[in-house]
Amino acid sequence: MLRLGLLALAALAAPAALAQERELSTDRPDKTESPYTVPAGRFQVELDFVTYTIDRAAGVRAETVNVLPVNVKAGLDADTDLQIIFDSYIHQSINDRVAGTRRELDGIGDLTVRLKRNLLGNDGGKAALAIMPFVKLPTNSGGLGNDAVEGGIIVPLAIAIGQGVGLGLMTEIDLLRDEDGAGYSPSFVNTATIGFDLTERLGLYTEIFTERSAERGADWVVTFDAGLTYAISDDIQIDAGANLGLTQAADDIALFVGLSRRF
Which of 1, 39, 201, 248 has most Cβ atoms within 10 angstroms of its Cβ? Predict the structure, then answer.
């Protein structure tokens, strides 16, 4: 959720603003989704130019490069948008020092379809709330996915603190295929992010992300995330950031640079 402080200040100053004049709001670069939707009849593209991830555990080092993962959004009405997320090209290198083996995987990722419905505060007020169900379709190749249909529901909340500062909270419940492939278990995600408007165009965010699966033996995934955003224009924003793993089950680090563009 980006530029939350500016969105909140604009909402307070002009609570009757028309949807087509809504300020750009994105679901990136943090993991906390935005409750604001793309205005009706407009499109928005959000992507990473590249994401580089490192994870080390039990003598195994995995490096993953994801090139141009993209989220394409279409505003269906004043409070609803449709999102198509595709994980494009992925290269993964897995070096097992214990076994003395190395594997290289290349292919595409999965396709995710989401529908976001704003319930409160899309064009005014101190808070905004939305609901976003989604389904993941197994389109992956090269052994880069679990070949399972999965889904869930996301509930993001934005709260204006004031003075260019905004709070974002999100809770999410997913139904994911178990590691052994024998069934499905729910997974619970919770996040909190604080965004700061450093200038009219430059923003900073920090975030805590947690995930815990109900599958037996699953560990907590916790990351600390931070990054910068810069608004080139009213419809174009660039960003960069890092996600740092705080638990063994989390990736050690993920670095990314991205872009959001509204049409």
Answer: 1
Under DSSP, the state recorded for 123 is S
What is residue 27's DSSP assignment?
Answer: S
Query: Residue 189 CB: number of other CB atoms within 10 A?
Result: 19
SS3 for 28? coil
* Token digits of residue 174: 């997913």
Amino acid at the residue 28: R
CB 9 within 8 A of CB 217: no
Question: Could you tell me the pTM of the whole model?
Answer: 0.89
CB within 8 Å of 64: residues ≥ 6 apart: 51, 52, 53, 55, 90, 91, 92, 93
Tell me the pLDDT tens digit for each residue of 204-249. Answer: 999 999 999 999 999 999 999 999 999 999 999 999 999 999 999 9
- Tally the residues of the chain: 263
List, in order of start, the domains of the chain with CATH numbers: 4-262 (2.40.160.40)
Residues 6+ apart with CB under 8 A from 2: 25, 26, 28, 29, 30, 34, 195, 203, 205, 229, 237, 239, 260
Tens digit of pLDDT for each residue in 149-173? 999 999 999 999 999 999 999 999 9
Q: What's the rounded Cα separation, in Å, for the pair 7 and 27?
A: 14
Q: Token pair for residue 146?
A: 């679990």
Cα 237 to Cα 102, 116, 202, 241, distances in angstroms: 38, 21, 10, 14
Q: Which two tokens stand for residue 184?
A: 């499905």
Phi, psi dihedral angles at 92 (to 5 degrees): -130, 135
Confirm if 36 and 26 have CB atoms less than 8 A apart: no
